[in-house]
Design a protein that fits this description.
685 residues, alpha+beta, Beta-galactosidase, Chain A, domain 5, Immunoglobulin-like, eleven-stranded antiparallel beta sheet, 14 helices, globular
Length: 685
C-alpha cells in the first residue's frame, strides 16, 4: 500500500516509494508486486561531499555525509515515454546554493532501477565536488540475512564470482549500546582507465530467507565505488557511484551556474541471482545503442589468438582468409601488427599514425590486396586499432599539441609503457582519430574495428576523456551506421556498462588455453549479453577431434570469435569447424533475446564441471552448454524452470568426445561426457 506521507512511483514490475514530505526527502524502498513490504528507509536521496563540507562522521561512505541531510525538497516530476518511466526529484541546499536532481528511470515491465544525480551550482561562489553517489538505496533487509556476491576480474581469469555473508564484513557492534551506527561497510573500488581490472563493476545482495536478489552495476569507464553497510533500524543500505576524490583523486569544480552529471548506476531485483541477472540483461539490451549487428550476430574470424599473434603478412593472410571463408566466417579481422614496419616487431612505442606496413604488405596493392581478398570471399574486412594511445616514438607525438594528451597536474604528458594517452575532449585528438577512421573505413572499406586499449592510467581528466571517447564512438557510428565496433582492453579490462552501451561486441578474455576458457565463457553473460560477448574458438590442426570440438563448443552460447590455423587443417578437420559454425548460425537468432542461468551455480575457476544455460522467451527452447574438465564422467544438472516437466526432449547439437544427454523429469538434465576435456551443447524443448 502507499503510505500516507509517501509517494509511489513505478510500473507493473517495480515500484519505488519515497517520503517527499519531511525536512530530508528519502527513498523508502523498492519492490516488485507481491514482495514483502520493505522497512522504510532512513537515508537521504542524495549524499555528496564538497570541499569544506565533508562527511558527517568519520569514514568515506556514500551515506552519512554532512550535506545530504541538508538538501530540502523543491519539486518532483514524473514522465513516461518510449517505454521508460522517469522521475526527477529536485533538492536544494539553502545554505550553499547547490541544487541536486535525483534522476531515476525504469523500463516498463522490467524490475530495474537506473539512477544518476545532476548537480547545479545556483549559488554565488565556486563549489568543488569531491564525491557524489549515483544511487543510494535503503530499506534493504538486515545484514543478518544477506549474502554478498562479487566477481574478481583479472587478465586471463575474468568473471570469478564469489560470495560471503554480509555480516563477515559488517559486524553487529551492538548499536543499542553505542547509540551509533557501525562504521564498517563492505566497500569495493575500481580504479583507473581499466575499470574492470581486479573486479567487475558489479555486486549483488541475496536474501537467504526468501531468495530475493539485488544485483547492480556501476556504469563508469573512469573508476567507480560501491559500498554496502548497516543503516538505522538494522537495515542494509547500498551506495553506488563513479570516481571520488578519496578513491581516485577526482574532483569537479562548479562555477556559479555550472552543472555536473554523475555516472549512471543500475540495480535489478529478481528471484535469486539468475532472476536478477535476467532483468539486468533485458535492461542492458534496452540502454545500448541500436545496431543491426545485435540482430544478425555474424561469425567473426580474427587472425590473432594462437594464430598469427600480431605478425600478419600478405603471404600468411591470403590462405587463412580462404580457409576462414570455407569454414563459414562472415567477418575477417586483421589484428595487431598490420602497421608495423620494423624488422624486429618493435612497434609498441611507435604506434599512432595507423598506416599499413609496406614490408608486411608489399607491392602496389599493399594492404588493399588483403582487404579485397576478404571481400572476394564474401566476408567483411576488419582491422585492429588502439586509438587512444600514441607511442613516444611516433611522429604523431610531435605533431599533436600537449593539450591533446592527458596530462599530470604539473603539465607533463601521461606516459605509460612507452605510450602517451590521448585526451578526446581536445579537438586535435578527435580530428586525428576521425582522419584515421575516415581513411580506414571511408577509403579502404573496412567494416569492422577492434578497438583495443593496452595501458591504464588514473590521470586527471579521465572521467571527461572516457565520456568523450564514448561520444566519439557514437559519432563514428553515426557516420558509418553499418560499421561494427568491438571493445577490447587487454581482453576484458574495460567491460563496464557505459562502454557496452555504445559498442557492438565485447572481448571477454585473452585466455589462450582452451581448457581454462570455460569458466570465463560461462561467467561472461553476467556482465555482457550473450550476443555481445566475444568468446575465442581457436581450433588447431595439431588438435585431436575432441579438442577441436571442445574449443569450438565453448563459444557457441556467446559470440563466436573464430581463430586458429584453419589453412593448415585437413578437409575433415575443417569440416568439424564448418559444422560447429553451422550449429551456431542455426541457433543465433534465439540467443539475441535469451537470458542466462547457471544449472550448477556460477562457475569456480577450478571447477571440474561447468555449465551455462540460455533460456529463450516465453515457451521457447532452452540451451545448455556443459564442460567436463575432470572428475566423474556423469552428472545430473537441475534446470529449475523445467523442473518436473514431462515430454522434454534433449537434443545434442554439438559434442566434443563421446557424449550423452537425456531429460529426467525427476532430476533434470543427465549428461555423460566420456573424455576430459569434453563438452556438449544440448537443446531442451
Amino acid at each position: 500500500m502507499t503510505r500516507d506521507f509517501g509517494y509511489r512511483w513505478g510500473h507493473s514490475a517495480l515500484t519505488v516509494d519515497f517520503d517527499l514530505g519531511g525536512d530530508s526527502p528519502r527513498m523508502l524502498g523498492m519492490a516488485r508486486p507481491d514482495d514483502p513490504e520493505p522497512p522504510p528507509g532512513t537515508l537521504p536521496l542524495v549524499d555528496l561531499t564538497l570541499l569544506g563540507a565533508g562527511t558527517g562522521w568519520s569514514g568515506p561512505r556514500f551515506r552519512g555525509t554532512a550535506l545530504g541531510p541538508r538538501l530540502r525538497y523543491r519539486a518532483h516530476h514524473a514522465t513516461y515515454g518510449d517505454g521508460w518511466h522517469h522521475l526527477s526529484v529536485e533538492l536544494h541546499d539553502p545554505a550553499g546554493g547547490l541544487t541536486a536532481f535525483a534522476e531515476y528511470a525504469s523500463p516498463d515491465g522490467v524490475a530495474v532501477l537506473r539512477s544518476r544525480v545532476r548537480l547545479r551550482n545556483d549559488g554565488s561562489r565556486e563549489l568543488t565536488v569531491r564525491s557524489v553517489g549515483s544511487l543510494l538505496l535503503a530499506g534493504l533487509p538486515s545484514p543478518d540475512v544477506l549474502d554478498v556476491h562479487r566477481a574478481r576480474n583479472d587478465w586471463l581469469a575474468e568473471g570469478r564470482w564469489y560470495g560471503e555473508a554480509l555480516r563477515d564484513s559488517v559486524p553487529d557492534i551492538g548499536r543499542d549500546v553505542h547509540e551509533h551506527d557501525a562504521r564498517a561497510a563492505l566497500r569495493l573500488v575500481g580504479r583507473g582507465s581499466w575499470p574492470t581490472d581486479g573486479h567487475l563493476a558489479m555486486g549483488a545482495l541475496e536474501d537467504r530467507t526468501d531468495g530475493r536478489c539485488w544485483l547492480w552495476q556501476a556504469e563508469s569507464a573512469a573508476g567507480w565505488v560501491w559500498d554496502a553497510g548497516e543503516a538505522p533500524a538494522r537495515q542494509t543500505y547500498l551506495g553506488v557511484g563513479g570516481p571520488t576524490y578519496d578513491d581516485h583523486g577526482w574532483r569537479q569544480v562548479l562555477a556559479p551556474g555550472a552543472e555536473f552529471l554523475s555516472e549512471y548506476a543500475a540495480v535489478a531485483l529478481g528471484d535469486g541471482f539468475d532472476g536478477a541477472l535476467a532483468a539486468l540483461t533485458s535492461y542492458r539490451r534496452l540502454v545500448r545503442r541500436p545496431h543491426p549487428d545485435h540482430e544478425r550476430l555474424p561469425v567473426v574470424f580474427n587472425d590473432y589468438m594462437n594464430t598469427l599473434m600480431g605478425d600478419p603478412t600478405t603471404e600468411k593472410l591470403l590462405p587463412l582468409i580462404d580457409a576462414a571463408a570455407r569454414a563459414g566466417a562472415e567477418y575477417f579481422c586483421v589484428d595487431a601488427g598490420w602497421y608495423d614496419d620494423t624488422a624486429d616487431g618493435g612497434w609498441w612505442d611507435s604506434v599512432g599514425a595507423w598506416r599499413p606496413s609496406a614490408r608486411r604488405f608489399p607491392g602496389d596493392g599493399g594492404i588493399g590486396v588483403v582487404l579485397e581478398r576478404i571481400r572476394e570471399r564474401g566476408m567483411v574486412p576488419g582491422l585492429w586499432l588502439e586509438p587512444e594511445v600514441v607511442g613516444v616514438r611516433s611522429p604523431v607525438a610531435v605533431e599533436l599539441p600537449d593539450a591533446a594528451f592527458l596530462r599530470h597536474d604539473d603539465g607533463s604528458r601521461v606516459t605509460e609503457q612507452g605510450r602517451h594517452q590521448l585526451d578526446l575532449t581536445h579537438p586535435a585528438a578527435r580530428a586525428h582519430l576521425d582522419k584515421t577512421v575516415d581513411r580506414i573505413v571511408g577509403e579502404w572499406g573496412v567494416g569492422y574495428l577492434k578497438l583495443d586499449y593496452n595501458i591504464t592510467t588514473s590521470a586527471p581528466g579521465l572521467l571527461e576523456h572516457t565520456r568523450a571517447w564514448r561520444a566519439w564512438v557514437a559519432a563514428v557510428l553515426d557516420r558509418y551506421p553499418s560499421l561494427v565496433i568491438e571493445n577490447c582492453a587487454s581482453g576484458g579490462m574495460r567491460m563496464d556498462g557505459a562502454s557496452l552501451s555504445v559498442t557492438q561486441l565485447q572481448s571477454t578474455s585473452d585466455q589462450q588455453d582452451p581448457v581454462r576458457y570455460p569458466p570465463i565463457a560461462a561467467a561472461a553473460p553476467t556482465v555482457v549479453p550473450p550476443e555481445q560477448g566475444a568468446v575465442w574458438a581457436y581450433p588447431q590442426p595439431s588438435y585431436a577431434d575432441a579438442e577441436i570440438g571442445f574449443t569450438l563448443g565453448t563459444a557457441l552460447l556467446g559470440r563466436v570469435h573464430l581463430s586458429g590455423h584453419l589453412d593448415e587443417m585437413s578437409e575433415r578437420q575443417l569440416g568439424l569447424v564448418r559444422d560447429a559454425v553451422a550449429t551456431y548460425k542455426a541457433i543465433r537468432a534465439e540467443l539475441r533475446t535469451a537470458v542466462p542461468f547457471w544449472p550448477l551455480g556460477l562457475p569456480g575457476w577450478a571447477d571440474e564441471w561447468v555449465a551455462l544455460g540460455l533460456r529463450t522467451p516465453v515457451e521457447g527452447a532452452t540451451y545448455v552448454s556443459v564442460w567436463r574438465r575432470g572428475g566423474v564422467g556423469e552428472l545430473t544438472l537441475p534446470v529449475r524452470h523445467l523442473a518436473g516437466a514431462e515430454g522434454v526432449r534433449a537434443e545434442v547439437l554439438h559434442a566434443a568426445g563421446g557424449a550423452m544427454a537425456e531429460w529426467d523429469a525427476t532430476g533434470g538434465l543427465r549428461v555423460r561426457l566420456d573424455s576430459t576435456p569434453g563438452m556438449v551443447l544440448v537443446r531442451l524443448a
